[in-house]
Amino acid sequence: MSISIHDVSVPVFANSLRNMAAWLDKAASEKPEAELLFGRLAPDMRPLPAQYQMASDSAKNAVARLAGIEAPAMPDVEASFAELKERCARTIAFVEGVDPAALATGAEREVELKFPNGMGYRFTGQAYLTGFALPNFFFHVTTAYAILRGAGVSLGKPDFLQHLGPPNIQPAR
């Protein structure tokens, strides 16, 4: 059995971005938004909005690169929970809107990442997705979660995995 690039990218990105949007609802019900927007894990790390922006960028850029198309531009201007939730929604709409057929050859597609200093990486699509895009995405997802949790928002593992819904196995009676 094989698994498609679409199946290991689009639903993973979309589910986690939906979870992240829900975390903001929970956070807003428990803490002042202004108190959380500047939260960071360490002085040299970017604050909460940047973690959402970079998770969004990681998802949309990965899907675009794997499909061989341009990702939509999304300037990093979000300064409220509502704007961060809207960014999550726009990113989800983009990644879910990419035709799975466009990703069919994504595993073999060459992906080149260049940094501003001229250095970078060259990958096959599969190596890019599994070795860079997904780990980078989850770094920012997890950092956003940790910032909120560290600030006292009552998030737990069920919030991180809420896309699974309630358990689908029930104990025998």
From TrEMBL:
Protein source organism: Methylobacterium ajmalii
Protein name as annotated: DUF1993 domain-containing protein
Entry-linked InterPro entries: DinB/YfiT-like (IPR034660), DUF1993 (IPR018531)
Family matches, as Pfam families: DUF1993
Domain of life of the native organism: Bacteria
